[in-house]
Amino acid sequence: MALPKIEAPRYELTLPSKDQKIEYRPFLVKEEKVLLLALEDGGQQALIRAVKDIVKSCTFNTIDVENSPLFDLEYVFLQIRAKSVGEISKLKVLCPDDNETYADVDIDLTKIEVQVDEEHSNEIVIDKDKKIGIFLRYPSIDDVEEIKDLTAADTADLFNIMARGIDTIYYGEKTYTGSDYTKEEMNEFLENLDAQILNKIKRFYDTAPKLTKEVEVVNPKTNVKSKVTLEGLYDFFG
Hints:
The chain is 36% helix and 26% strand. The protein contains eight helices and eleven strands. It has helices at 29-41, 44-58, 70-85, 144-147, 155-165, 183-191, 195-206, 233-237, and strands at 11-15, 20-24, 88-94, 102-108, 114-115, 123-127, 132-136, 166-171, 174-177, 210-218, 225-231. The strands form four sheets. It has a four-stranded antiparallel beta sheet.
């Protein structure tokens, strides 16, 4: 006689990027094992693979994990984790007053929301009168390593990141899809833009929606209280 299969409970959440409701379930023991192995590995790529696999399985393949905005995947993963191992996550946070001591902090995962800058927009207007502009796509989880510090990127890498991030270009009544063109063609397009437009594109990345949480930490050695902003995969899952 075959052993019974226990069906996991289902929950519902709303994707931050498109106000779309999806169903999800807690991750199973086999999926938790994948996550623990990734954390033990310590590498960002291992963690990214684990998060993608878990989100894909636990949302019943309703999310395109390769192309979804990073903040969507982070938010969904936090909700999955909260239902799987508990709403409270115990983290060790580096105290900024001495930059060497770690403090224990309890984070309620259900209280973390995607933060959106009031001035943020994915539309870059080049010429309002001529109706020329760009729509940018939000970075995916695979883009994390390359976009984490645009100010430190060299010129070639900077242009490659921006070129890949162009979703569409509109010129009057015509629309051009970025993925239809080569990297060289997109780089050439960027090179012919005004420097102020490039700064607007950089600002798009700087102000993109993020899963962040400000917490108060007390240094156990100095008793100094500080506020620390948590952001990104390692801050919340590590």
